Amino acid sequence: MIDFELEPQVVNRLKMYRMVAENVMRPISREYDEREHEEPWQFFETMWAASTLNDMQPGPEPRSEGGKPSAPRFRNLNTVTTTEELCWGDAGLFLSVPNSGLGGAAVMAAGTPEQKTRFLKRFSEGKPKWGAMAITEPGFGSDSAAVTTTATREGDQWAISGTKIFCTGGHRALDKSEGFVVVWATIDKSAGRAGIKPFVVEHGTPGMQVVRVENKLGIRASDTAAIIFDNCRVPADHLLGSPEVRREGGFKDVMATFDATRPIVAAMAIGVGRAALDFVRDFLKEQNVPVRYGVSPRRLTVVERDFMEMEVQLQAARLLTWRAAWMLDMGQRNNLEASMAKAKAGLVVTQITQKAVELLGPLGYSRKFLLEKWMRDAKINDIFEGTQQINMLIVSRRILGYSNKELN
Amino acid sequence: MVDFQLTEEQQMIRDTVGAFARDEIRPAARPADESCEIPADLIAKIWELGLVRGPIPENYGGDDGERSAITGAVVAEELGYGDLSIAIHSLAPRLLAYPVLEQGTDAQKAAYLKRFTGPAFVAATAALMEPRWDFDLTDLATTARREGGGFVIDGVKCAVPLAADSDAILVYAKSGSGAGFKAVDAFLVRRDAAGLKIGEREKNMGLRALATYEVTLDKCKVGADARVGGEKEIDFSRLMSETRVAFAAMGVGVMRAAFEYARDYAKERKAFGAPIATKQAIAFMLADMAIEIDAARLLVWEAASRLDKGADALKESYLAKNYVAASALKVTDNAVQVLGGHGYIREHPVEMWLRNARAFAALDGLATV
After folding, report:
1. For residue A63, what pLDDT is reported?
2. I need a labelling partner for B248 at 20 to 30 A (CA). Which of A176, A308, B123, B316 fits?
């Protein structure tokens, strides 16, 4: 039965996240936006200690022996709602929370049960750690099948060579903790997509070096690393899943990762958008500017119309996002819906935050308030984990029934 | 608990009404638009689906089914997918029946509901809109003042569907006390009541097949028992939320019709040696349309779900309807654009859907769940 109401337990859980967002993230939000590249260690320790917060692994429901999904726990739906809450606090800090991150998502999507245990165990013990994922290279972004980084089998090792950029959390995963990065490299260039495989590269592995941490428009608390792999050797069993170059598989695992993570990025956007919307709502209230729901649109002021438009667009994006996550929880393929949610959320939240700055004029533009920061933070959601355009391309292919070759 | 799945019964209703819309309603849409007339036998056939009778209790001859705004939205979307004029026409009796069913006195239910459970379509309607550019539901110009034992209604209504064929019209009027929604009451007015005049059939840009009329109430006297709910105030806000959900759901249906037509055309039509759908300029328009359809439907369902839970849905239904008003225009306009010059020609239905889609921003209160 159609229902959009979260269970009371979930709502209660969200209240806890809201407290973290409000009391832990917001107070340092501006500080770590200004002090880019500095590490909010106290925040890291706090978040790490609250180990329940690390239970945020996206991906399909783990399957029991019989192949049936274990009882529906709405893991992905929980993840998107908590993500929204934390990004309402601060998206840059959210991306900095020590956890298995996208690296963990890749392990979950492509790894064997043994690999999942081996690589992910560390995230529930010891000191704060980060997991990261490296796909993008200087020569390509959206065209993620164009991987030029190579992995060559030498004895019982893989030797990885190439340059990866835009790796979120890469610096902290490799240089600041006992973490790892999942690197996508080709083991057989002639096999195209099928030859692209994910490898776990541990911190401190010789031949791997973080050479740069980027300066960015927003999400400045989050580190974005450039990493060079020069004959970097990892054990054979660090290749996630099967080394077999199948026609179906390999690259498909990257896509499986995206189906699970795109709703999360959409939820990130929604959190930032809601922060801006709440700010504007409170501001209008304080200024005694009414927002009259139910009144003929022709009688509304421009401010009212703008505000309502922001609000309904945000809710549209939220519902699309919840649907995409819910489908994953139900064991349904959500490739189309995940891209719909990501495309919509990235776009509308970019617009919502930009409109919010406009609505408040000089106050919106001032760094005295966080509104301008949210506008800068929001934009990343329109870009990473598949740009607006790549997600539109995926939606297009799915609704038209076209292959990558037929529509590119 | 969050759930994006319709019940089995709702899916069955969607399949049945959807197939009917595709096979029976759609072929009739263009001729009806051109001739400004809907074939009576088509209306009779839709009537047989029991879409009005469903939630009316057994003792009035109805099916005693559960009344659900979600189910109502599903039905409205499918009918809207067939044709908007025909959808509004065939569900118009709900405009009088459902407010009485939900908020009427026992005497009113006994007097009015039975007529909607017979084998033949019986026209009925509601008069809500007024011919003003800034017409507003919270500020009606039509008034009802107490006089003697009853009420005297004054005002001019427009866009009243099927008024000329309806024996009774539900007239919304400001009854004096209170402000905003609270000030509005609904009155059951017989068509032959003194002071009620039904004007010429209106001519509109779209919805050409739908017969709508201006209705003038000039010192129109009705008894105290004509006020829906009697002395108990009606929940006008809820009634309007229900109309917005229904109309918005029809809008989703119109969007879907336009999207599917444009999508199929784009896969057939070739330019520069390949189907135009293989070009991103076209494909992205279609992708945007698909996203807007799903977004709009979810917003409508969210408002409907609140109604089904008995929660206030004023804001949600309002925002959903406004969202549809904008997105239906965009989607149907895109459909015309995808077809290019051919989209402008009346041989294809997309120009009709563009004209019809503008109704969602211009009109209100034409359907209910």
Report:
1. 44
2. B123
What pLDDT sits at residue A248? Answer: 52
* Cross-chain residue pair B5–A315, CB shorter than 8 Å: no
Domain annotation covers residue B347: yes
Q: Is residue B369 part of a domain?
A: no
| B339 and B240, same domain (yes or no) | yes
Say yes or no: A75 contacts chain B, CB-CB below 8 A: no
**Range of B266's domain?**
236-362
Interface probe for A, chosen from B1, B181, B285 (most Cβ of A below 10 Å), is B1
Q: Mean pLDDT of successive 10-residue segments in chain A (408 residues)?
A: 93 94 98 96 93 49 45 78 97 95 88 94 93 94 88 97 97 98 94 90 98 97 98 97 69 73 95 98 97 94 98 98 96 96 98 98 97 98 94 97 94
Q: What is the 8-class DSSP label of residue A241? A: S
Answer whether residue B74 is part of any domain: yes
Q: Both B110 and B13 in a single domain? A: yes
Contacts 24+ apart (CB under 8 A), A205-210: A205/A232, A205/A233, A205/A234, A206/A232, A206/A233, A207/A160, A207/A231, A207/A232, A207/A233, A208/A160, A208/A174, A208/A232, A210/A170, A210/A171, A210/A174, A210/A175
Specify the pTM: 0.95
Judging contacts by C-beta atoms under 8 Å, the chain B residues touching residue A396 are 280, 283-284, 286-287
Provide ipTM, 2 decimals: 0.96
Find chain B residues with C-beta within 8 A of A326's C-beta.
2-4
Domain holding A267: CATH number? 1.20.140.10
The dihedrals phi and psi of B199, each to the nearest 5 degrees, come to: -80, -170
Domain edge (last residue) among B178, B200, B226: B226
B192-238 tens-digit pLDDT: 999 999 999 999 999 999 999 999 999 999 999 999 999 888 999 99
Neighbours of A28 (CB within 10 A): 17
